[in-house]
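Recall the central idea of this unit: under ordinary conditions, the amino acid sequence of a chain determines the structure it adopts. In this exercise we apply that idea directly, starting from the sequence alone.
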Amino acid sequence: MLENTIIVDGRDHLLGRLASIVAKELLSGQKVVIVRCDEVCISGSLVRNKVKYAQFRRKRMNTNPNRGPFHYKSPARMVWRTIRGMVHQKTKRGQDALSRLATFEGIPAPYDKMKRKVVPAALRQIRLKPHRDYCVMGDLADAVGWKHKELLGRLEGKRKVEADEWFAKKKKRVELVKKAEESAKGELEKVNAILANAGYD
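Accordingly, the structure predicted from this sequence is:
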């Protein structure tokens, strides 16, 4: 069942498992936005993943490295590239699927006020044994030359403060509605009885 756009919160998801599920959704025609790519996890220690990325960065075209392969340093592009490898991107169908994907570090403006979802089948707490090593994508990207970790930390700090204020206001509003309903309970019982008779349960 296709929805308008699914916004996935990448925090504490395992990269490969999340990528495969998102790739399947994209191929079926679903638009997907992944936020907080910097907090996606990869199994294996940071040292191991740094070594693997160093080996990956050595892969280049011998005669003209400008032609690729291109090695991205930002977490959002790393996630994007992982998913690209799962959608058969050299075909028209794969290119269309990839155009339905957007990835971001942190949670930028339009998406911070929207409902975000998690993918239970890709969550680290569920899929990775507790004693296994893992590393966070933001730390790996920072280690290989990504320069915006500190800036992102500041922006996310501001966003979380605003979100906390909004949530506190929401809780007050919910409490006021409950109090209003309790104070008008006698009147509402009569109204509810009439509505029930009319078929509104």
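Residues 46 and 140 are 7 Å apart (CA to CA).
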